[in-house]
Design brief:
alpha+beta; 89 residues; 5 strands
């Protein structure tokens, strides 16, 4: 984690919160995805504060694949009420 913080210029004390799914074209974040036999419900928010936080990159990627739009799996860090969204390669 320290390498990622340094690479993106984050404070050393920033806390890793988890992975999130970002829709870059609409600049929204996945809040929830519910898959049922007859429908898939997707809820999005304009800010990362409301985004669903995933424990693993693979879980975030699974939900990203359920979106019709282009998506990016990002890492969410926070410190003193400020959030940092970074996109590692």
């Amino acid at each position: 984690m320290n390498e990622i913080k340094a690479e993106f210029g984050l404070p050393k004390t920033a806390e890793f919160r988890g992975f999130i799914v970002h829709l870059p074209d609409s600049d929204e974040f996945v809040v929830s995805i519910e898959v049922e036999p007859s429908a898939t419900r997707r809820v999005f928010a304009a800010t990362p504060e409301a985004a669903k936080i995933y424990d693993s990159e693979s879980a975030a990627a699974d939900d990203a694949a359920r979106c019709k739009q282009d998506t990016q799996v990002a890492m969410l860090f926070g410190e003193d009420g400020q959030l940092f969204v970074v996109y590692p390669e």
